[in-house]
Amino acid sequence: MKIYTRTGDKGMTGVIGGRVRKDSIRVEAYGTVDELNSFVGQAIVLMDRSKYQDMIADLTEIQHELFDAGGDLAYVKAPEGSQITYKINADMVTRLEQWIDRYDAECPPIKRFVLPGGSPVSAALHVCRTVARRAERRVVTLAEEEPINQEVRRYLNRLSDFFFAVARTANVREGMGDVEYKRGGEVFG
């Protein structure tokens, strides 16, 4: 099988149920989810398996779910004679909340806004957080124009919170504190 198909040379791409312009909001939404998945992979390769075995397992599961989210977002309509079967569901959002709580328990209480940084792993996870926020914004825009699996939007919202929690946890595991924003007062606690 050849990697190139030439079917997109005129600016159109295939989605589930048809073809759309490559710059459509649908393609922008699932493309940003794909970009996020790549950044998650980059964060994983920075991790020492002895310190991050649990986090690597969770992030790998998230990579599979991001692929599923992209598939859910690629539906324009169900193939003829079938129904759309989405993969992202409310249980995944609940599980993310449980993971957030577990990782947050490793961290000291937060008092100030946190700047991205500290350890290389933390910085990479903060990039994941910001790309997750962008993906969520693209999905919100798509949802205003076309039907989507609403659980994808909820999942991405919670996922950015997850990345914040694991970024802080990474600094703890590396023996570093958060990089706090110093130009404001304490806002939490």
From TrEMBL:
Asked if the record carries the keyword Nucleotide-binding, the reply is yes
User: Which GO annotations describe the biological process of this protein?
Assistant: cobalamin biosynthetic process
Q: In which pathway does it act?
A: Cofactor biosynthesis; adenosylcobalamin biosynthesis; adenosylcobalamin from cob(II)yrinate a,c-diamide: step 2/7
Its top-level enzyme class, in one word, is transferase
Which Pfam families does this entry report, sorted A to Z? Cob_adeno_trans
Q: Where does the Cobalamin adenosyltransferase-like domain start and stop, copy by copy?
A: 3-170
Q: Which reaction does it catalyse?
A: 2 cob(II)yrinate a,c diamide + reduced [electron-transfer flavoprotein] + 2 ATP = 2 adenosylcob(III)yrinate a,c-diamide + 2 triphosphate + oxidized [electron-transfer flavoprotein] + 3 H(+); 2 cob(II)alamin + reduced [electron-transfer flavoprotein] + 2 ATP = 2 adenosylcob(III)alamin + 2 triphosphate + oxidized [electron-transfer flavoprotein] + 3 H(+)
- Its Enzyme Commission number(s) read 2.5.1.17
InterPro entries assigned to the protein according to its UniProt record, in alphabetical order: CblAdoTrfase-like, CblAdoTrfase-like_sf, PduO-typ
The family this protein is said to belong to: Belongs to the Cob(I)alamin adenosyltransferase family.
- For this entry, the protein name equals Corrinoid adenosyltransferase
Chain's gene name: yvqK_2
